[in-house]
Amino acid sequence: MKSFKGITTGAVIGAVTGMIIAPQLSKNAKKKIRKSGRMIRDTAEDLMDSMKMWSK
After folding, report:
1. What's the predicted TM-score (pTM) here?
2. Per the structure, how many domains does the chain have?
3. Range of the domain at 32
4. Of 2, 11, 22, which is closest to residue 44 (Cα–Cα)?
5. If DSSP codes are grouped into helix, strand and coil, which group holds residue 12?
6. For 22-54, what is each residue's pLDDT tens digit?
7. Alpha-carbon distances of 18 from 15, 35, 36, 54, rounded to whole Å
8. Residue 11: which pLDDT band, with cuts at 50, 70 and 90?
9. How far from each other are the two terminal CA atoms of the chain, in whole angstroms?
10. Do residues 42 and 34 lie in contact, with contact meaning Cβ atoms separated by under 8 Å?
11. Cα–Cα dist 30/17, whole Å
12. CA distance 16 to 54
């Protein structure tokens, strides 16, 4: 449960940082950040699903 708190806290900090920095970036940079964010989210979801199946 501690690792979940850490992951959540990191995600919130990253989101806030992104909101502060994003207005200064170009459209291409914003597009790359969104794409990377989706990839990270998908990977995290896959990892969580694997952990759930492994713990059963």
Report:
1. 0.50
2. 1
3. 2-55
4. 11
5. helix
6. 667 677 877 887 888 888 888 888 888 888 787
7. 5, 14, 12, 33
8. confident
9. 16
10. no
11. 13
12. 33
What are the structure tokens assigned to 31, written together? 């597009």
Amino acid (1-letter code) at residue 7: I
What angle (nearest 5°) sits at the alpha carbon of residue 27, between those of residues 9 and 18?
Answer: 15
Q: Is it the case that residue 20 has pLDDT exceeding 80? A: no
Residue with tokens 């959540």: 8
Whether the per-residue pLDDT at 56 is higher than 70: the answer is: no
CB neighbour class for 18 (10 Å; exposed up to 12, middle 13-18, buried from 19): middle
Find, among 53, 55, 51, the residue nearest to 43 by Cα. 51
